[in-house]
Amino acid sequence: MIQDFYPTLSEKEQLAHDIWRFRFTVEKDKKLEFLAGQYMILRIGDVRRLYSVLSSPHDTSYFDLLVQIVPNGIGSTHLMNVSVGDTAFFQGPAGIFMIKDEKTQKIFMATGTGIAPILSMIRTLLSSGHTDPLYLFWGLRAKRDLYFVKEIEKLRDAHENLHPIICLSQEADEEVFRNPIFRKGRINLYVHGFLQKDPAKKGDMTFYVCGAQTVVESLRVFLDGAGIEKYAIHFEKFV
């Protein structure tokens, strides 16, 4: 059920040159009960901005948002002007992008801040004892855009069923790719290779795709061309 929240900003952290994490602590008489993948609605007067929740549903006293700061963007400008200790107006949780119960391999595809709901899903699955393979393909432009690498590596090291790949489409420094978690190019190149390893298993896969609207549409077309049924593709598009 969508509720009104007036949480307090308790943490504000810059992760990359244009990426910030905001932690909002919910009012003491409330709990934020949501499902991994859902979003919160920031209200600025009559303006609404939707932000996927980065944190785990196990934490009901606060929620984390991952925000790309867009010059003159209404939502990001408002959040940057909120100081620690200030309150903001949110509604939520909302959204239908969430983990399904299918007994299939789960393949996560994210670009940019689309990692927010995806990472929430992965954390939730791993903390609940999920042992089936989880595959993550995350696309960024270059090393200057990197964040969460150590956290993802820590999760991978603690859970042998997590297989993450971070793709950098515009990185020229070959030294970066000495770390086996990184690949050069776009994520569809490596998803294609993954699918070609055992084409017979395509029907036993569920895909979760999140990122900018144009990118998600492109990835949906790619998966359709690769023989993935539409019902096996769940997605969230950032506008």
Task: Give the topology string: H per helix, E per strand.
Answer: EEEEEEHEEHEHEEHEHE
CATH-defined superfamily of the largest domain? Nucleotide-binding domain of ferredoxin-NADP reductase (FNR) module
Question: Can you give the helix content as a percent range?
Answer: 10-25%
* Biggest beta sheet summary: 6 strands, parallel
Number of domains: 2
Instruction: Give the beta-strand count.
Output: 13
Name the CATH class of the largest domain.
Alpha Beta
User: What general form does the structure show?
Assistant: globular
Question: First CA to last CA: what distance?
Answer: 23 Å
Low-confidence stretches: none
Features:
alpha/beta; single chain; Elongation Factor Tu (Ef-tu), domain 3; 239 residues; Rossmann fold; four-stranded antiparallel β-sheet; six-stranded parallel β-sheet; 2 domains
What would a concise description of this structure say?
With 239 residues, the protein is of the alpha/beta class.
Give the secondary structure arrangement, pairings included.
Elements: E1 3-5, E2 8-16, E3 19-25, E4 39-44, E5 47-52, E6 62-68, H1 74-81, E7 90-94, E8 105-111, H2 115-127, E9 134-140, H3 149-158, E10 162-168, E11 182-184, H4 187-197, E12 205-212, H5 213-225, E13 233-238
Parallel strand pairs: 8-9, 8-12, 9-10, 10-11, 12-13
Antiparallel strand pairs: 1-7, 2-3, 3-6, 4-5, 4-7
